[in-house]
Structures are given as structure tokens and as C-alpha cells.
Amino acid sequence: MWIRTSLLAAAGTAYALLPLTAAAGAPVPGAPEPVVPDAVYPLVAYAEPDLGGASQAFGAGVFDADSGGLGAVGGDAVSSLRVAEGFRVLACDRTAAQSADAVDGLGSCRYFDAGWYDRVGGGLDDRISLLTVVAAKETGQGVTVYGEPALSGGKLHLGSGRYEAAAGDLDRLDAVRSLSVADGHQAVLCDSDRSTATASGNPGLCQVFGPGEHPTVGDGLDGAVSLVAVGGPAVTATSEPGFGGAVQSFGPGVHQAAAAQLAAVGNDAISSLRVAAGQRVLACADDQVAPAVLGECTLFGSGVHELAGTGLDDGISLLAVSAGPSTGQVLTAYADGGLTGSSGAFGAGMFAATDLGTVGNDAISSLTLADGGRAVLCEHDATAPGEVGDCRLFTAGDHATVGKALNDQTSLIFVAS
Q: In this predicted model, what pLDDT tens digit does every residue of 96-128 receive, in sequence order?
């Protein structure tokens, strides 16, 4: 089988796309979603079959190879996937020249439910250039769909997440015929969803829409949309409580006020944070020219976070954003000082204690960062506010010591390239 059936224990009561096997048959309404207990991150994509080779973790969002969004795996290289419970993934070949059934630049697609997929199949092995990771629908206005062309007729506001005709999510409209997409968002529309897709998981014709107004969804989708997948920013920050005032969105990476990367919302000005499903953000005070000890730092998970009454309200100077780890050699950490002892290599992303591999938790003493690399090391990896302990910022080059506070004490690393 393409999917490891040992992970398909029952949970919940939602519809589900069955495992992608020739004998699976059509999805059955009312079938429970599979449980994937070992899938810590919403999606991990792998460059080799059987969950092997280079890998990249993803949170909710739309990730395009053309903009480098597929990270360590890269475009036209994904061969297997691991999807966490509660998430679904739409994987597409966006290269029209390579797909005879391409529609407006988006070719063959497959829709994956939770599970371990040893091969992506469906003719998409080493051809995926767009990944859309969606959780349950969220309140918001990232996308507005309309029942008539030219943004007219009935309308429906959609936040990040998945909207399926089979689940009644689009019932307020007779059809979807036009849409507008807010800044920082993207939407993928398809003419089949998980109840009408074949056993191959083919969602039919799909098209991706970026920010702006779209007076038509195209001839192939006009009046036929059954699936809307909405992706928004990994993190949104505002200068006032309740998401008022200046607004700035952030993708994966380390964003510093000292490098003018918080210019829109402002240094020492953030009062609210919204973190997308499956993403994490480390927010720190007292950003300085690296290497430097940072001020108070807090690790936030998915959801809305009001900072009023905390030490970080109007005090944030650095945001480190990631969904999880990736392979690569942006940072090499060593167990002994002077770049000696056992070592481990890390790509861009977030690495908790269990991700520190051969170098180990509470064992790092020195490190080197590749050109253009930045990293934040912290004492603890707990997700509760105020429990990451001491943190320090490093930039490209050799660092013979990580400092007294973090020597043999590091449990959390954010790496950016």
C-alpha cells in the first residue's frame, strides 16, 4: 500500500479521503479521519520514497517552488509525505509545460488526508511544485468568494483553512464564480473535493489565485468549484490590541528590527500576534547586532495572542518563525568548544530538544553558520509562555563558544538561511 495502514486508527466523525490504494474505492461519508500519532508537524515532505532523503516540515499555508517555498526538498523533488491528523494537503504540478491537462498554469493535483504516504503517486513523483497545507476552517476574511462574476451576487468570507462542498462549507452560495484575495493570502480552487474525488485522490481541475480581485475563476471552474483551500501568512503582527493599528505579515525566518525587518509594524510596537496552524514564533526583546544575548523571549504556538500585560507588549525586536525542522547544513553544532567533538548539521527551521540528533539536547558548546545564516539558540523548548530561558542570536561565521548561559544547555534552535 502507498500508506501505512497501521496508522489508520479511527478518530473523529468527519468525512475522509481514503488511503490512496487501488482497492480503496470511493470515500465513504461519515468515515472517521485516520490518526497519525507520530506526525508531529502538519506536513513533512521527503525527496525520496519511503520517507527518506532530504526533508522539510510545513505548517498551514500555500508553498510555491518558484519562490523557494518548498525549502530543503525543492521543486520537482517530492516523493513521499507525512500528513498529521487534522490536516489535509493539496499537492500540484504547477508547470504547465509538463502537464497535458494543465489549467491556467496549475496541472495535475492530488488531495491527501492524514497518513504516511510512501510515494505520492498519481504521476506526481518528482513533479510537485505547489503544496497547500490546510487545517479546519478559521474565522477571517483572507478570501471572499462570490456567486456571480465580477465580484457580484452573494458572497462568503473565508479565513485560512479548507472549505469543502461535501461538508456544506459552500452551501450559502449556489456557485463560486469570482473571488478577491487579501494581501498575504492565496487560494486554491478545485472542481472536486474529498467526497467526489476518485480513489486516486484526484481533485480534478485546480487553479491558484494570489492577492487581488479575480472577476472570474476561469472557464474550467466557473460554477463547478467544490473545494477552496485558503492559505495565509505564517505570522501576523499588529501594533494595537485586538489586531488594530499597523499590520505586518511574516513568513519563515528570523526577522530583526536591527535589520529593519519589522519596519511596517515597528520596533518595540507589537501588541497582538496571530500564528497560523502548525506554525511557531519565538518573540524576543532587545534585538542587537549578533552575536548577542537577547532579552525576554517567549515561544508561541498556533492561535491568537494578545500581549497586553506581558513583558513583551510594545517590546518585541525579533521574531523567529518556523513550522519545524529541515535537513541541510546551514548550521553545524558541536558538542565541545572550538568547533570540536560530535556534531550535527541543521537546515533552516525550528529544532526542539528531540530534533537535535547526534549532537544532542543540552550538549551544544560551539557552532558555525553558513554565509547568510542566522540562528537563535534558547535554553528550553517548552511552549508555555516565558519558559524558553536564556536566548542568544548568532550570525554567519564560526563561534568557538555559545556562551556560558547556553553551554551544554541548548534545547531549542531557530535557523534561517
A: 434 444 445 567 889 899 999 999 988 899 999
Q: Are residues 126 and 171 in the same domain?
A: no
Q: Do 351 and 412 meet the contact criterion of CB atoms below 8 Å apart?
A: yes
What's the domain range around 364? 331-416
Closest C-alpha among 101, 262, 297, 92 to residue 189: 92
**Strands laid side by side in the 318-322 sheet:** 253-256, 318-322, 280-284, 297-300
CATH number at residue 92: 2.60.20.10
Torsion sign over Cα 334, 336, 339, 342? negative
Rounded to whole angstroms, the Cα distance separating 151 from 271 reads 34
3 state SS of 165: helix
Integer Cα distance of 27 and 172 in angstroms = 24
Q: Encode pLDDT of 13-51 as tens digits.
A: 222 223 332 223 333 333 334 344 456 899 999 999 999
The DSSP line for 45-86 is: EEEETTTEEEEEEE-SEEEEGGGTTTTTT-TT---EEEE-TT
